[in-house]
Write a sequence for this structure.
């Protein structure tokens, strides 16, 4: 049994906004893909900014292996939203191939 992508219609003019709204998740996905080799090598990225100095609250981010995996999953679903239905199937295949290649090389 061969798997085929579902038949999709052309993107109507009212959904063109979805094409532009996917650029941020796509950019974040590509940045996370660039960080993949260093994170797999054991490096942990951290960033911290002072948020509310009077309360000694800081805004801190950390990128390790688990957060990278979740970041890839979340950003992939962000740029393959329902408004991007014609593009969803290739995105899933490319992401699955990328993750397979990175974990089996």
């Amino acid at each position: 049994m061969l798997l085929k992508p579902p038949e999709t219609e052309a993107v109507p003019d009212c959904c063109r906004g979805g094409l532009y709204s996917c650029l941020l998740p796509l950019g974040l996905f590509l940045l996370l893909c660039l960080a993949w080799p260093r994170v797999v090598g054991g490096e942990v990225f951290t960033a911290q900014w002072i948020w509310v100095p009077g309360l000694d609250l800081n805004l801190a981010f950390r990128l390790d292996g688990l957060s990278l995996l979740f970041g890839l999953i979340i950003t992939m679903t962000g740029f393959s939203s329902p408004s991007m239905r014609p593009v969803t199937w290739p995105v899933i295949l490319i992401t699955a191939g990328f993750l397979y290649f990175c974990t089996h090389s």
